[in-house]
């Protein structure tokens, strides 16, 4: 790579992003977002061409800054500017010209709520690594998600009281590696987890035309940036560094876990990059939440053959039992010596990603704490979730999983009195070895052994499961912690048929 060019480019980009804006703001408001204005006179034949190009640029910038501007002015501008890229300046009807005029007016009416440097955190310094030897060769068009001068950053959503922070969560919206679906998988996710006690940071990662390796490096740097600056920002909950990724965002997490963990440097992909102090910080995640995430081996999606098979099986509702030739848990092995606790959420009918998540969960199960949830009759991309299909529960379950995995949950086991319901007429106790240590299980069943009531203490919390047994298969109907249901078969396999005590 032309190292001088890259450093110069990065410096210009960073400086430009902090330069003064030409947009008209409310009197007395800050004004440091570099919005462009139309330079061509209204009477000029090229006016609307210039206007459309200007607002396409501005929209790509503004849509990533929801906390920089007041909500009303930001939403108004984004709703109008969203359609600019589809307009043909040479063939504009009067209604389309009015759309352009209204967009310009909305941009001029933007009200900046806080300085740019307070609303976003640039994660890189003057030097930004890239696998591309010559970054100037990357092609940015009107259809590219970002402008050519885009610089990766975090949008922080911090708790008012950092002493109450349960952890820190980086959010990577989906959109493959081509865009960032912040409206559905970014901003609302931060707000939901914030209410549950987590500092949240929406990562504005690079996307196409950048390579997957560049995107993985952005997440690695974000992890390190938060840890490095934790004291500067007064951040609490630093014993829990987590990330949640959706679809391609999940693939970003997987790529980082598999390729850029621990002390590994960006020089793995860019030998000309000069690591700084931030790069010396450990890049391991404590918890990874993979929501219908892309392939565990770091690829964007699943193998082509897998997609074809999914399409065939989806019509017959056979996805939960399908097997893909050549793929199994062993296909997702990693050299990472310190993988994070893993939480998976995927729709039963996800024809793009689903089975990869199952294989990855199996690959990590027994090595780290793993929780997997499959939502019935749900496809790809459910974001915050919906009451219509029970997917709204995943955020609460994920929050509990993070606190359990990192030991931040309050001790409640001793305070909870377990009273076995009367219908469970026989009971026994036994020890069982889990990946995280030994547990002492109390198991109760009905006389007919068609229902069970089982509990034990783990992670300083009471784990309690209740359910039924149908055709020899245990089905959990209640899971107090939200992440032990997948282990019920193993728990019950240790029951001694000759060791029951009648109650």
Description:
- This protein is 29% helix and 18% strand.
- By secondary structure, it is an alpha/beta fold.
- Strands 1-2-4-3-5-6-7-8 form an 8-stranded mixed beta sheet, sandwiched between helices. A 6-stranded antiparallel beta sheet has the order 13-12-11-10-9-14.
- Helix 2 packs across helix 3 (71-81) and helix 3 (71-81) runs antiparallel to helix 4.
- The longest helix has 17 residues, at 212-228.
- The N and C termini lie far apart (75 Å).
- The model is unreliable at 1-28, 298-324 and 410-415 (pLDDT under 50).
What's this model, at a glance?
With 503 residues, this protein is an alpha/beta fold.
Whole-number tally of structural domains: 3
The CATH class of the largest domain: Alpha Beta
Q: What is the strand content?
A: 15-25%
Query: Might you state the CATH topology name of the largest domain?
Result: Rossmann fold
Any idea what the CATH superfamily of the largest domain is called? Alpha/Beta hydrolase fold, catalytic domain
What is the SS-derived class?
A: alpha/beta
């Amino acid at each position: 790579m032309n190292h001088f060019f890259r450093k110069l480019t990065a410096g210009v980009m960073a400086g430009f992003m902090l330069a003064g804006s030409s947009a008209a703001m409310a009197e007395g408001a800050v004004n440091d977002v570099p919005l462009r204005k139309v330079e061509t006179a209204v009477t000029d034949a090229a006016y609307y061409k210039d206007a459309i190009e200007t607002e396409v640029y501005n929209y790509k910038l503004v849509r990533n800054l929801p906390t920089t501007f007041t909500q009303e002015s930001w939403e108004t501008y984004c709703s109008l500017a969203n359609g600019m890229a589809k307009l043909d300046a040479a063939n504009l009807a009067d209604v389309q010209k009015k759309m352009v005029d209204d967009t310009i007016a909305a941009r001029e009416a933007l009200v900046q709520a806080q300085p740019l440097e307070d609303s976003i955190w640039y994660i890189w310094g003057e030097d930004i690594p890239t696998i591309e030897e010559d970054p100037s060769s990357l092609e940015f068009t009107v259809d590219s998600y970002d402008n050519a001068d885009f610089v990766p950053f975090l949008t922080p959503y911090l708790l008012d009281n950092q002493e109450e922070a349960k952890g820190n969560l980086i959010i990577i919206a989906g959109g493959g590696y081509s865009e960032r679906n912040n409206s559905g998988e970014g901003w609302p996710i931060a707000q939901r987890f914030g209410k549950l006690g987590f500092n949240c940071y929406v990562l504005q990662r690079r996307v196409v035309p950048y390579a997957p390796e560049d995107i993985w490096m952005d997440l690695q740097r974000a992890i390190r940036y938060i840890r490095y600056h934790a004291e500067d920002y007064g951040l609490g909950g630093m014993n829990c560094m987590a990330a949640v990724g959706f679809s391609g965002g999940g693939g970003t997490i997987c790529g980082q876990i598999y390729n850029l963990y621990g002390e590994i440097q960006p020089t793995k992909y860019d030998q000309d990059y000069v690591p700084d102090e931030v790069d010396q910080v450990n890049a391991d995640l404590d918890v990874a939440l993979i929501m219908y995430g892309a392939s565990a081996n770091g690829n964007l999606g699943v193998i082509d053959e897998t997609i074809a098979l999914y399409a065939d099986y989806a019509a017959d509702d056979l996805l939960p039992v399908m097997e893909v030739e050549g793929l199994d848990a062993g296909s997702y092995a990693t050299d990472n010596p310190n993988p994070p606790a893993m939480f998976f959420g995927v729709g039963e009918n996800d024809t793009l990603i689903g089975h990869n998540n199952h294989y990855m969960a199996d690959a990590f199960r027994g090595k780290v704490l793993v929780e997997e949830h499959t939502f019935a009759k749900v496809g790809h991309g459910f974001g915050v979730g919906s009451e219509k299909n029970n997917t709204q529960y995943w955020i609460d379950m994920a929050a509990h999983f993070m606190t359990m995995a990192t030991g931040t949950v309050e001790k409640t086991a001793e305070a909870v009195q377990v009273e076995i319901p009367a219908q469970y007429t026989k009971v026994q106790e036994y020890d069982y070895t889990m990946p995280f240590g030994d547990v002492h299980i109390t198991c109760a069943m009905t006389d007919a052994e068609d229902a069970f009531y089982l509990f034990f203490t783990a992670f300083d919390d009471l784990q309690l499961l209740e359910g039924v047994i149908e055709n020899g298969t245990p089905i959990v109907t209640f899971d107090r912690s939200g992440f032990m249901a997948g282990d019920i078969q193993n728990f019950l396999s240790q029951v001694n048929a000759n060791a029951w005590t009648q109650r």
